[in-house]
Amino acid sequence: MTFYDNVDWVGFLTENVIRKCVSWTLADCPGCQDGMKNDILHQHHQLSLLDRVQNHFEKARGEVLGSLPTLYKIFAPSLPHSSDPKKDAVIYCNLGKTFLLTSSPQALYFGRYINSLNDSCISEAMVKVKKAKL
User: pLDDT digit string (tens) for 35-65?
Assistant: First the structure.
């Protein structure tokens, strides 16, 4: 195992996919679209997080795959590096691509890639993602 096998990087990619799925669930909610006031009439309240991820996983994964170089630049300060920054970028992006292409909604949800140890660095990077409108 090398330092490129980094749970923080995988957790950051996981959080990107999950946040997109949650956001699209809200956008697709008939209760929100119709201005309903009662929570029971809102699909996004009725669905579990796993349901939300399953519903939008393919689309979210595709967007995150398309943003890997930019996401790497945002998260790179939180990652260990070798003496070759270009090599690091290629390896981390390839690792991220492989992870995303071989993942499933269940793997992201049950995988525990986000934990109390990496929560703060992932949350800080997600602020940058939001500013970059990714």
Answer: 999 988 888 888 999 999 999 999 999 999 9
Query: What's the angle, vertex CA 12, arms to CA 15 and CA 87, rounded to 5?
Result: 150
pTM of the model: 0.92
- Among 26-40, 97-111, 114-128, the minimum mean pLDDT is found in 26-40
Task: Give the contacts of 116 (CB within 8 A, at least 6 positions apart).
Answer: none
CB 4 within 8 A of CB 51: no
Please calculate the CA angle 5-22-90 and round it to the nearest 5 degrees.
Answer: 25
Nearest Cα to 61, choosing from 105, 8, 25? 105
Q: What is the C-alpha separation between 32 and 38, in angstroms, rounded?
A: 10
> Residue 47: which of 60, 62, 32, 35 has the closest Cα?
32
CA 58 to centroid of chain Cα atoms: 12
**Residues 115, 28 contacting (CB under 8 angstroms):** no
Beta-carbon contacts of 37 under 8 Å, excluding residues fewer than 6 positions away, are none
